[in-house]
Every structure is written in structure tokens, then in C-alpha cells.
Design a protein that fits this description.
About 30% of the residues lie in helices and about 20% in strands. It contains five helices and seven strands; from the N terminus they run ααβββαββββαα. A hairpin with a 2-residue loop joins strand 6 and strand 7. The relative contact order is 0.16.
Length: about 220
């Protein structure tokens, strides 16, 4: 009887230990990913994409929403550099712009979110999107999503930041950026994080300032 009395507590202790271990690592000693760090696989509604788009105070310092309403749906040709072309598998998107310190002629920023039906179609569109004549690659230690690219137009100084996470591609373009991609990176990372938060059923709270601080630590 004595042995049977202690068998149940021992089993419970083992189960609790296993549960605790599985919640903190992936079984290989690595920290398990939080739900807000997972690749984007959800088919977002138009409202969810709109919700994830950063507003003025959530964008890089000095930027506020420009002429286009935050709720403006994106179009298929926002996701390609060929006018009138619809990339295979495109389902919906989001599109908005931002003015820098109220200016409509300097450092304007464009944000495009492009959702696809499969990761394979998103990857194909991403590859075509990031291979552009006249732009050169810029290496940046900080990354975002499954694939990340930073490009510069050496003539105009405009900066481009791209990311693919699962079935979603994101583009951030800043005109007259003087070859500086940091604001583009911070906006890219914040937008991706906000979409991940929405996918996890949370309110999007990530900001460009937070992503900038994290990038500094990498």
C-alpha cells in the first residue's frame, strides 16, 4: 500500500516536469517560439490587414499617415514591378503611404502588404519583386521573416526593404533616404510583427521604435 500511495504523486511530478520542459523548449534544448514569432500562414481578412498597418505613432519617428487612407485595400500590381500583372496566387493586400515631418516631396514612405494562397506562390513573387535593375543589395545584420532583402537606388538614394514570411510579402520604400535603410528596416519589422500578433489573436502593438531597439541589440 505504501508504494501505491507514492506512485501517483511521482507520476504527476514527472508529467508536470515534462509539461514545463515542453513549454520552454522544443525538445532539443532550444527555446520554443512564441505564437507571435511564427511564420504567417493565416489567410487574413481585409480588416485584419488594415488593423496591422502601423499608424503615425507606430511608424519610424517623424512619419505620419499620408494621403492614402490606412484602410485602402492593396491591388495585385502593388506586388509586382510589371504594370497590370497579377502575381500567381495573390489574394489581397494593404497599401498606404507616410509623409515625413509633413513633407510631400522628401523622404515619403510607401508600405505594401501582399498576401498569397501558398508559401510557394509568395516565394515566387518575392523573388521577382526583389530582383530589380538599377538597384544594389545592401547588407544589414538585422533580418525579418523567412527572407529579407534591402536594396538601394544609388542615383536617387531611395531605400527598399522586403520580407517574406510564409504566405505574405511586405515592401517598404523610402524616397530620398540618402542610402539609409534603417527606417525601412524598422517599418518592415514592425509591420511583420503586427501581422504575427494579429495571426495569434492579439491586438497589434508592435512599433518601429521597438524594432529599432531590438535591432541595436543584434
Amino acid at each position: 500500500m505504501t508504494r501505491s500511495r507514492f506512485a501517483l504523486p511521482a507520476a504527476l511530478v514527472t508529467a508536470l516536469a515534462l509539461t514545463s520542459c515542453s513549454s520552454s523548449d522544443d525538445g532539443n534544448g532550444k527555446a520554443a517560439k512564441d505564437a507571435t514569432e511564427l511564420a504567417l500562414t493565416k489567410q487574413f481578412t481585409q480588416g485584419e490587414i488594415t488593423q496591422a498597418i502601423p499608424e503615425g505613432g507606430e511608424a519610424p519617428a517623424g512619419y505620419d499617415l499620408g494621403n492614402r487612407d490606412k484602410g485602402l485595400p492593396g491591388t495585385a500590381d502593388d506586388c509586382t514591378h510589371t504594370e497590370g500583372e497579377k502575381p500567381a496566387g495573390w489574394t489581397r493586400g494593404g497599401d498606404t503611404d507616410y509623409h515625413y515631418q509633413g513633407s510631400t516631396s522628401s523622404r515619403m514612405m510607401d508600405l505594401n502588404i501582399c498576401q498569397f494562397d501558398t508559401a510557394a506562390n509568395a516565394k515566387s513573387a518575392y523573388s521577382a519583386w526583389t530582383h530589380r535593375d538599377g538597384l544594389t543589395a545592401h547588407e544589414l545584420k538585422a533580418k525579418a521573416g523567412d527572407e529579407t532583402a534591402f536594396l538601394l537606388n544609388r542615383k536617387s538614394g531611395s531605400a527598399y526593404a522586403y520580407a517574406r514570411s510564409g504566405t505574405v510579402n511586405i515592401e517598404v520604400k523610402i524616397e530620398d533616404a540618402s542610402g539609409d535603410v534603417t527606417d525601412a528596416h524598422d517599418m518592415l519589422s514592425a509591420t511583420l510583427k503586427r501581422l504575427q500578433q494579429v495571426q495569434a489573436g492579439k491586438r497589434p502593438t508592435a512599433t518601429a521604435a521597438e524594432e529599432a531597439a531590438q535591432a541595436e541589440q543584434q
